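Data card: per-record layout.
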Amino acid sequence: MGDSTVVGDWLGHFVQSSMREEAVERFVAVVDAAILAALPAVAADAVLVEDLHRSTRHQWLAFLSSLGRADHNLFVPAQASDLARSLARRGMEVRVLLRVYLSAHHGVFAYLSEAIDRLSAEDNLPEEVLRTVWRRADRWMDESVEALIETFYVERERELAGSAARRAELVDEILAAKPIDLAHASTTLGHPLHLHQTAFLVWSGEVDERTASMLQSAAEELARTFDGGTLLTQLSGSRDLRCWVATVSPPPPATMAALAEKRFETVAVAVGRPGPGADGFRVSHLEARSAQRLAMDATSAPPFVDYRDVELLCMAMADLPALKRMVRREVGPICVADKNLAPVRETVLTYLANRMNVEATAERLYVHGNTVRYRLAKAEELLGCQLADRPRHLELALQYVAYFGPPAD
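The structure for this 409-residue chain is written out next.
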């Protein structure tokens, strides 16, 4: 009898004996013990453990069936695919799936070594039998992992797309002021909606393969300014990101001031006022949108716009002709074509924004206090009035000029 016949006969005997119920149970116990010892997160999940047992059993039976044939033909049982999908649905990383099969690899070869030793104890077993079993098992494991990784990623993408769609729909419902279950919404979003909410819009003037990650990095950097704040982000287009930071109490002025100092390459930021709960989530976002719209329409705008600083200007833009008339009336004399007047306008605007405090204005502009006083006096001379006479009108008019330039006649 030739070696090929001996190998075929022995493999047939091995397959027959290994397919007995008690042998299958022993195989599953040996292999799954190795897997669960390596992956405590899987071992702690009763449903996953059951999925694992089913996967191991049917993978083994499929392998034994193939071992009885001359040709190799991979067949991945549905139970194995179910395990890969279960791991993906639980948000586990693909490395968990790889660890399952790495541990299974060790368990399978430990079992095969023991079984071959036992069955060949009284036989003069050709080395070709050993090589055939090891080679087929190794190939089966490798191809199974390849197929199941693809299954894992298909499921992960489907889950992520579904999860993202559900989250986006829920955010839209909150922004539309629809009634929601606050606790359920917080769980779905992974964001504590009952806390104080500060909304951001982060956007870029450029779009490339780095844009999404750049916007996310900027949002995370901004969120770190809030001590212990929880960040929620949502891409709303190819180059803009909606963001909310939840905090136990309203952010103090120092936090908001620190935000204004942040600068990002090719990224601009608009922020709304903090507010409590779902209403704060909605209103702060609407305010951030108003600030963003102002910045994007402006001829010149800073990279960070706080709605609190431009609230009156945002509202006044609703009646643009009246606003322009007011600007010309209030600050026309210091808006003529003279480059020496630009620092005068900047100083007056900063002075009014800082509650007419000379020292704070000088610190903000990095100039000497006497320089501030000289520019303020120059403005009062040209305007023909005291700055304290109509501070709100002056500040609004100068804000408009700072963003859009002097209105055309």
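Known properties of this structure: The CA atoms of residues 77 and 167 lie 33 Å apart. The chain has a mean pLDDT of 87.

See the next section for split statistics.
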